[in-house]
Design a protein that fits this description.
Blueprint: E1 2-9, E2 12-19, H1 31-49, E3 56-60, E4 63-67, H2 75-94, E5 99-103
Parallel strand pairs: 1-5
Antiparallel strand pairs: 1-2, 2-4, 3-4
Helix pairs in contact: 1-2
């Protein structure tokens, strides 16, 4: 199962932590892993290319943590984080055995 935690400070999104593997299908064929990878990677890329912010990111096999400081948040970063949150929420609702989404 993939576990994603959205990181907030009050109402502001600051980042997320994503860990695990879905186990929906064999590696290379797992649509849940692929969907989560696309959402998380697009989020990081959009923070830089759209919002002009470089988030602190840690990436390993089956693990990604992305974090902005509270002072780096802008309306654009909040829209980007809200978009990934919506995508992950929709995916978790459709595939609850393979993806769990929480907030801290």
């Amino acid at each position: 199962m993939i576990r994603v935690t959205l990181i907030r400070a009050g109402e502001k999104f600051l980042g997320f932590e994503c860990k695990g593997h879905a186990g929906y299908a064999p590696a290379g064929s797992d649509i849940i892993c692929a969907a989560v990878s696309i959402l998380t990677t697009t989020c990081v890329n959009a923070l830089e290319s759209v919002a002009g912010k470089e988030a602190e990111a840690e990436v390993k096999d089956g693990y990604m943590r992305v974090l902005l400081s509270e002072t780096e948040t802008t309306e654009k970063t909040q829209i980007i984080f809200a978009t990934i949150a919506q995508g992950l929420s929709d995916l978790a609702e459709e595939y609850p055995k393979y993806l769990r989404l929480t907030e801290n």
